[in-house]
Design goal:
Structural class: mainly beta
Length: 991
């Protein structure tokens, strides 16, 4: 959307005309004060015969010789507008987009003089100013001024957003499952096999034109959300023909040139594909034999043959971590047809990036939690009870091909996007286990245990979308149809635990083998495959009624979504056979990669691979959503705008092996389980957004809306998957949708082009919020609470310093910017009580719940976010310094307040120096990421709480006097990671 003042600059969605020799272009869009495009508007250069009419999307393009011009924009029933001092340079495009106001009874010419500043950041704020609801965003130019390699790293720079692991977004303190991602307006499926979220690191930053985060709802948005909708916009058809190439490299001060440990690399790893190296086995089957001590059964000949067909991927190799490398090639063309109003064009881009990193970690969770500073005071921050490194080899690449046709009344576009990421982390962790009977708990002695985990992860995202826009008289028809596929494979994930009974430093660790199969350790292998294909289609009709100050735009439409997903997960436990002698030298001195080379070592008296029925799990499902909506964009006088309407949703999810059918199979009774909470077949969701424009620069906004977030397949399935980040299994539950009611207010002041000062507040009520809860150290499950409340304040500033002194032109090239968010939340949870008969329905059982004794924050909530920076954008040199602060974050939710885990406050400072070279056709950038080498850490505050009732925990817990949930000196650091500083240099050249 575009602002109601002239001289605004926006991202170029423009048509083109044939270039003149030795010349440049003026291009942009013409819209009304609501941000709706105006097809057929006249654009001409005053005093000359050069002119054009805008296409159906309001775009225009003029080819002229270098110089300074005055442009005039006009359309029937709108005030004519002139823009002066438009500077055109040779072989450059001057982007200039304006909005026209409806005329009343007389024609009125308005001449506005504005200085030209070519920068796509203005486009973000112009769309924000004219958006129907409350939005924030970031432009490709802003991203380019940071070291961010992918969208996951960039999102935390947007007001009100934080990220987890630089992948998953949290909006306004609401966890990732309540936020959705769209690519060019089409919803993206979840990329995780155990949680509802989208991994934003799969989107390379080079593919992005801009990102808009919708924080309030209008009926025509493609999907519901509680926190925010992150809309990723890829690059559109160009204004002028171009070829752009960039190349970059860099190093990390704690990784590059160091030994990087990994399983054997495949010959296609640098291309993101597996060559068969990580083939775990030729086939999978549930074994007939079992090493269960309570009921051991000898393994059959088929079981032994099954064990012997497993590959040997256990051996580890040392590679040198190579410097980072990245390449991007983008080119685009547009062609005018015989009719000057008709144009076709395309843009194509390919990008590649490879990084190899070593992260230092401390892990004092689970088995390595010795009660630091209590039972074992000899362990501290310098000598932790669990520590190690994560070695990661990462290849990411992607491409897009967008093709379009535009005329005065019609446009058709085909958008194609593909991205692929191969991530191969290996975690090597050392620690002291307090269940070792003869262990010495002293840092002077080597750790008792070494754990090795590998996660070869191949993730591909492909989206194809066909869309059209047509104008028939006063009616505009929009339609689109798309297919999106997510394919994720984790191949041969090794889980290995080794022991050092002598507790001597050096190569004294040997593999530990047991006859128990209750955990993935000491030895197991896993693989899973997740595939989801989504089909999305929509159509809408809109028409404007009335004139001038009381015009109404009425829009009706339909949105359809069909999803199909399959997910299979295999765990094979490597155990001592039923007849094996645990005390033998073979078992006690086992080195698994050596033993695996001899097929005779797989037998009942040595080793076996065992697959339990629950270790060979899968589910498949489909869901269908049909949404009908009607909305009005109504002007109420010259200053007031109301956008609102009603959304009607019909949703159905079908799942093989869902929570209800699985639970019924487990019940040893003739009774059947029925759900306690039931989703309605239809949901009717109203929304309203009110904007009062005090003047052309100041908006006052208020918003009300209802939305609903549906469960995903994995949240409804009882199939259990192991999550390496949580070091535990994750399973679904008998869960239902969450309905959210939201209230927002905001004041937005746009003092100049590309500038903003805003302040707003929000409140959200979530009915039956769904959260991931830790049931034990080895199991997490989903559970609906009773209610949650989330509220906060947001502020944003972006301002050039030229206003300080007009006699210092350098100040106008310096911009200060920042945003801050203060958030609070409360949740009333529900705990399972018992199975109870259903009144008036004999033969049926229902789960009953009881309310938690205390309220607490929402899972994922961060109380304070801050981004701040300063930039200098000179003719030759540029400098940007950006700082991000994220307050402590609620990370692991348990059923007891004092065992909840938090991510500590985190600060990161990034710096970029840039220079324009080769007559501004080239740019060189030097980046420093994480300048002060900040450490990311997690903690629990068990020592901060005490029983409300000193005689027992029945009434719950309370904070001790003088304590809080923030990190304090008595709190225990459970996990930390140190990623080091990254230095990169890149060269960009445009032909």
């Amino acid at each position: 959307m575009l602002p109601a003042y002239a001289g605004a600059v926006t991202v170029n969605n423009v048509s083109t005309v044939t270039e003149t020799a030795d010349g440049g272009k003026i291009a942009g869009k013409v819209v009304d004060e609501k941000g709706e495009t105006i097809p057929g508007a006249t654009v001409k250069i005053v005093g000359q015969s050069i002119g054009a009419q805008t296409s159906i999307d309001g775009s225009f393009s003029l080819s002229v010789k270098p110089g300074v011009y005055t442009l005039e924009f006009s359309f029937v029933s709108y005030q004519t507008k002139r823009i002066t001092e438009v500077v055109v340079k040779n072989n450059e495009v001057t982007t200039l987009s304006v909005s026209l106001k409806p005329s009343k009874n007389e024609l009125k010419e308005v001449v506005i003089t504005s200085s030209y500043r070519k920068s796509s950041v203005e486009g973000v704020y112009t769309r924000q100013k004219n958006a129907a609801g409350i939005t924030n965003g970031i432009s490709s130019e802003q991203i380019a001024k940071t070291p961010d390699a992918n969208l996951g790293q960039s999102l935390k720079r947007i007001s009100g957003l934080s990220t987890f692991d630089n992948k998953y977004v949290i909006v306004r303190g609401i966890s990732e499952r309540y936020n959705v991602a769209t690519l060019d307006g089409t919803p993206l499926p979840s990329t995780d096999y155990s949680r509802r979220n989208f991994s934003f690191d799969v989107i390379p930053s080079e593919m992005i034109e801009s990102v808009t985060v919708y924080k309030t709802v209008t009926p025509d948005l493609p999907v519901g959300f509680a926190g925010g909708m992150v809309q990723i916009n890829t690059r559109d058809i160009p204004t002028k023909n171009f070829i752009n190439f960039s190349i970059g490299t860099g190093f990390n001060d704690q990784s590059t040139g160091k030994d990087l440990i990994s399983t054997k690399r495949g010959k296609y790893d640098y291309f993101g594909f597996d060559d068969g190296t990580r083939k775990m086995a030729g086939y999978f089957a549930v074994t007939q034999g079992t090493v269960d001590p309570a009921n051991p059964k000898p393994f059959t000949d088929d079981d032994i043959a099954f064990s012997r067909q497993f590959t040997n991927n256990w051996r580890l190799y040392k590679y040198k971590a190579q410097p980072n490398q990245n390449y991007t090639l983008t080119f685009g063309q547009s062609f005018p047809l015989k009719n000057a109003d008709n144009k076709i064009g395309y843009i194509a881009s390919i990008n590649y990036r490879n990084t190899q990193t070593i992260t230092d970690i401390v892990n004092q969770r689970g088995d390595f939690n010795l009660g630091v500073n209590d039972n074992y005071p000899q362990f501290d921050a310098t000598h932790p009870s669990g520590y190690g490194k994560v070695y990661n080899f990462n290849t990411t690449y992607g491409g897009l091909l967008n093709i379009g046709f535009k005329s005065k009344n019609h446009s058709i576009g085909l958008r194609n996007t593909y991205t692929r990421i191969f991530s191969n982390p290996l975690t090597d962790l050392f620690g002291y286990r307090d269940d070792e009977p003869n262990a010495v708990f002293d840092p002077a002695y080597a750790p008792t245990t070494e754990r090795i985990l590998t996660e070869p992860d191949f993730l591909g995202l492909l989206q194809n979308k066909l869309q059209g826009e047509h104008k028939f008289g006063k009616v505009k028809w929009n339609w689109d149809a798309s297919r999106t596929n997510i394919n994720r494979k984790r191949k041969d994930m090794l889980r290995r635990e080794m022991t050092n009974l002598a507790q001597r430093y050096g190569s004294y660790f040997v593999d530990y083998v047991s006859k128990d199969a209750v955990n993935v350790f000491p030895l197991s292998r896993q693989t899973f495959n997740l595939s989801e294909t989504d089909y999305n289609w929509s159509t809408s009709l809109q028409r404007t009624f009335g004139k001038a100050d009381y015009a109404s735009l009425v829009k009706v439409g339909y949105i359809g979504i069909s999803k199909k997903q399959t997910n299979d997960f295999v765990t094979a436990y490597l155990r001592a056979g039923t007849d094996a002698d645990i005390g033998s030298d073979f078992i006690k001195k086992l080195i698994i990669e050596d033993a695996h080379n001899n097929p005779e070592n797989f037998s009942n008296d040595k080793l076996v691979y065992q697959v339990y029925p629950f270790g060979l799990s899968s589910y498949s499902g489909s869901s269908n959503s049909h949404t009908f909506y009607a909305m009005v964009d109504q002007k109420i006088g010259p200053k007031v705008r109301f956008v609102g309407g009603l959304r009607a949703e019909n949703f159905k999810l079908g799942l093989a092996n869902d929570g209800f059918s699985s639970a019924n199979k487990l019940l040893n009774t003739t009774d059947s389980l029925i759900p306690t909470f039931v989703d309605k077949k239809w949901e009717f969701l109203p929304s309203g957004n009110l904007t009062y424009s005090v003047n052309d620069q100041l908006n006052l906004r208020a918003s009300y809306s209802q939305s609903i977030v549906r469960p995903e397949f994995n949240e409804r399935s009882l199939a259990s998957n192991y999550n390496s980040e949580l070091l535990a299994d994750v399973t679904g539950n008998l869960v239902v949708s969450t309905k959210t009611t939201s209230y927002d207010i905001r004041a937005e002041w746009f003092p100049g082009v590309g500038e903003i000062i805003s302040l707003g507040a929000f409140y959200k009520y979530l009915d039956k919020p769904l959260e991931l809860v830790q049931q034990s150290t080895t199991l997490y499950y989903y559970n609906n609470g009773k209610w949650a409340k989330d509220y906060g304040i947001e502020a944003e500033v972006r301002k050039r310093l030229g206003f300080i002194n007009d006699n210092l032109p350098i100040l106008d090239k310096i911009t200060v910017f920042g945003n801050a968010t203060y958030i609070r939340s409360r949740v009333l949870g529900l705990k399972f009580d018992k199975l109870a008969p259903v009144p008036d329905r004999p033969g049926f059982l229902m789960l009953t719940y009881k309310e938690s004794l205390q309220t607490r924050p929402l899972y994922g909530q961060t109380p304070f976010l801050l981004n701040a920076g300063v930039g200098y954008d000179g003719d030759i040199f540029g400098l940007n310094i950006v700082h991000n602060h994220t307050g402590r974050k609620f990370y692991i939710l348990t059923n007891d307040l004092n065992t909840n885990e938090f991510e500590g406050a985190y600060d990161q400072t990034d710096v970029q120096l840039s220079a324009n070279i080769w007559k501004k056709k080239g740019k060189i950038r030097f980046n420093v990421a994480n300048l002060f080498n900040s450490v990311d850490f997690y903690y629990d505050n068990q020592r901060s709480y005490e029983n409300i009732d000193p005689n027992g925990p029945e009434l719950g817990k309370k904070l001790k006097s003088g304590y809080s949930d923030n990190f304090e000196k008595d709190d225990n650091v459970t996990f930390s990671r140190k990623v080091g500083r990254t230095f990169t240099v890149s060269l960009n050249y445009s032909f």
